[in-house]
Specification:
There is one protein chain. By secondary structure, the chain is mainly β. Helices cover about 0% and strands about 50% of the residues. The chain contains two helices and 55 strands. The strands form 14 sheets. The protein has a five-stranded mixed sheet with strand order 1-25-24-23-22, with no helix packed on it.
């Protein structure tokens, strides 16, 4: 009755100590610009004062933070990009921006930061580490790139290595440690010769491997090198990530199965990097949902773990075999809950990064930077190894070109040969032919004109980084020869541009979609364009002509697709009597047909409901048919409406038995009667004869060790050749 009438004795309530430590004491918050993705400490070289650098949506800010939590903003640098991770080394900031690559910011004068350089990374720049003269950048599926930053205004690319779906990277002495998110692993590479990185070992963790860092721990006379790994989402026990997608509440069975139980920090002794030794594991609360970012940074004795909606944790690692939580911080629940069932807990604000400045813990959050105190001095965090180095002697004795263009023999037949036609000092992403001229999208070099044999003619600077190029139908006003064609370019954070190309380039129009909507791909269908924006949207645009004025105009509303990677729009469209179709390949949900009409993009409802990989699977049009490559199988559809009724992956399809010896893995491109599969992850190229589209015949395979990303037929002297864009390796002819 005492409870029912509201009178209860507090003496019967027994307080219980939180298993996740005492709450941090919040001293203040920086909320000028909303979401902050990462923070780092900066030492002012002039005054030796410790400052805070915060990277958020569209800016990099520098702040003076006192030990009492009070702050003063010293400067703010506008950057037209969505930030992801931030590393600070020797007075420079290195900021990954996903589809917009990596920005280098000069912080030598904290009151006046300025942009020093930009790197057009291989794919979606995510993880970053900088130390000494080395910079490492992870590109999700495209591995890790290494750069010499001895002159930060002029970074020089050294090499790369594949490491699964890498989210974060760390540099320690001559080691690069990369976390492989999807495969729940960590890879250790010897980069003493960064032209030829050498894998030393791989170890697994219990959850989606994300943040990684290294600390040196001194115990008596011995020093141990300890790798800290932050994990999230599901435990390795959960083999099927979509098993509970229709569940409306959490059950004990789900938790026992590992649902939401991956979150935590794991410690490994990598003193011998070839034999990592598991030391211990500490779990945060089970959770699934929110931004998937988990980071960990440490010092000798403690580490800080940011776990998205779970918040921030401080962990005592004095005893490496028995770590324990000492402090925690969580943002309040969001006022409007949009839960994707099942939910383990209410969605709270997201914590994504952490730095320690003047004894204060500065947490990067979706509503700014929260300045915290644990009631005592917080030890400075190790953000990278100051002694990270590589052997320049080895480097000088290594050929300048990292790739040797070597091919393996398979099944007793001669393989295709890549004949390098043009070597670029940037990245050649794609190309189109106009008359007897090739127009190539060459990253920071803009548009490069080549002759039909790949010989260099000249180049034209573009306002933004040129990721892609397409020819537009100019309503019959031009001959589409090199004397005057209209081209559209995907220029990253500078949007989509329309140019008239003659013996010079003239910009006619431009559409800028804003921060976070970087244009990575442009596909022309007549006088209309389909654009990939950032990592999650598609948009359409159309060409309008009034007299001699040419303009690009947005067409209809944007369509959202969740997570898109690199380029997802099919380069060959399927067209039927009712209009044009294009195909987009989201990571989850499979290929989907979209109608491109006068009102923009429309969903057709034709969709393949299978999770797909955007570097190993895809779709393209061929004559009046639609070709789908997924789950290492080939499908030829006579009717696009049958896309949503394809057989289950296990059912297979009736195909030439020779295809069983094919990997059937890669993005598809149609070149005449040839189907070219390009796998940018493995470097594999496969060629099929599809003159009988329901019975494809494998012709050749080539293992290149390169990053093939685009293929097209080129008319040369009355015949046709197949050219392939190879990124840093330039343009090559595929000789069959």
């Amino acid at each position: 009755m005492s409870i029912l009438n509201g009178n209860i004795s507090r003496s019967i309530l027994i307080p219980e100590r939180s298993p996740f430590g005492e709450p941090f004491n919040e001293l203040g918050a920086i909320r000028e610009r909303g979401q902050i993705m990462d923070t780092a400490a900066l030492i002012n070289k002039t005054t030796c004062e410790e400052l805070l650098v915060a990277a958020g949506r569209g800016l990099v800010g520098v702040y003076r933070v006192g030990s009492d939590g009070k702050y003063e903003q010293l400067s703010s640098l506008e950057i037209q990009a969505d930030s992801r991770q931030l590393a600070v080394s020797d007075g420079f900031g290195y900021l990954t921006a996903r589809a917009d690559g990596l920005y280098i910011v000069d912080l030598a004068s904290p009151e006046q930061p300025r942009l020093a350089a930009h790197i057009d990374t291989l794919e979606l720049a995510t993880g970053v580490a900088a130390a000494g003269q080395l910079l490492a950048v992870t590109n999700r599926h495209m591995g890790c790139e290494l750069y010499d930053i001895s002159a930060p205004y002029h970074p020089a690319r050294l090499g790369d290595f594949l490491c699964g779906e890498a989210q974060s990277v760390w540099l320690h002495r001559n080691l690069a440690i990369a976390s492989d998110w999807m495969n729940k692993q960590v890879h250790i590479f010897d980069i003493s010769n960064p032209h030829i990185p050498r894998r030393l070992s791989t170890f697994s963790v219990d959850g989606f491997s994300d943040g990684v860092s290294v600390v040196t721990v001194s115990r008596g006379k011995a020093a141990r090198t300890v790798c800290l790994v932050a994990s999230g989402h599901h435990s390795a026990r959960l083999m099927n990530r979509v098993k509970y997608k229709n569940q409306t509440y959490v059950t004990p069975e789900m938790l026992a199965d590992g649902y939401g139980c991956g979150h935590g920090v794991e410690l490994f002794d990598i003193t011998d990097p070839t034999q990592p030794e598991f030391l211990s594991r500490l779990k945060a609360p089970p959770l699934f949902g929110g931004l998937d970012t988990w980071r960990v940074f440490g010092s000798d004795g403690c580490c800080y773990f940011t776990d998205s909606m779970n918040g921030l944790f401080r962990i005592d690692i004095t005893d490496l075999t028995q770590p324990r939580f000492t402090h925690s911080f969580r943002l309040p629940p969001k006022p409007v809950q949009q839960l994707s069932p099942p939910s383990i807990q209410l969605q709270c604000g997201i914590v994504t990064g952490v730095a320690v400045v003047n004894g204060c813990v500065c947490a990067a959050c979706e509503d700014g930077v929260h300045i915290l105190s644990s009631g005592g001095h917080a030890p400075a965090l190790v953000k990278a190894s100051a002694c990270a180095a590589y052997d320049r002697t080895q480097l000088e004795n290594t050929p300048t070109e990292r790739h040797e263009y070597s091919y393996t023999e398979q099944r007793g037949s001669s393989n295709p040969t890549l004949k390098i036609l043009y070597n670029t000092n940037s990245q050649l992403h794609s190309f189109v032919q106009s008359g007897d001229i090739l127009l190539a999208a060459c990253g920071e070099n803009g548009i490069v004109r080549l002759d039909q044999n790949g010989g260099y003619i000249d180049s034209f600077a573009t306002d933004g980084i040129c990721h892609d190029v397409a020819l537009i139908d100019d309503h019959g006003r031009g001959d589409h020869g090199h004397d005057g064609c209209l081209i559209a370019t995907a220029e990253g954070d500078r949007g989509c541009a329309l140019y008239r190309m003659t013996d010079r380039i003239v910009e006619l129009s431009r559409i800028d979609f804003g921060i976070g909507l970087s244009v990575r791909e442009v596909v022309a269908v007549g006088d209309k364009l389909v654009l990939q924006l950032g990592c999650g949207s598609l948009a359409a645009a159309c060409l309008t002509v009034c007299g001699d004025k040419y303009r690009l105009e947005p067409l209809g509303a944007r369509l959202g697709f969740g997570m898109l990677y690199h380029r997802h729009i099919a380069r060959t469209t399927y067209v039927d009597s009712s209009g044009s179709f294009i195909i987009v390949l989201p990571l989850a949900g499979g290929p989907e047909l979209l109608r491109l009409g006068d009102n923009g993009l429309e969903r057709t409802g034709y969709r393949l409901g299978h999770e797909t990989c955007p570097f190993e699977e895809g779709t393209c049009g061929y004559r009046d048919k639609l070709i789908c490559v997924f789950d290492r199988k080939y499908h030829c559809l006579d009717n696009p409406a049958s896309l949503n009724s394809l057989p289950e992956p296990d059912a297979g399809v009736a195909i030439d038995s020779e295809l069983t010896q094919s990997s059937m893995s890669g993005l598809p491109f149609v070149c005449g009667n040839r189907l070219i599969l390009l796998n940018r992850v493995t470097g594999l190229i496969e060629v099929f004869d599809i003159s009988s589209p329901h019975s494809p015949r494998l012709i050749k395979q080539a293992e290149t060790g390169l990053f093939p990303e685009f293929a097209a037929s080129v008319k040369v002297d009355g015949g046709e050749r197949i050219y392939i864009a190879l990124g840093h390796a330039g343009l090559a002819e595929l000789v069959l």
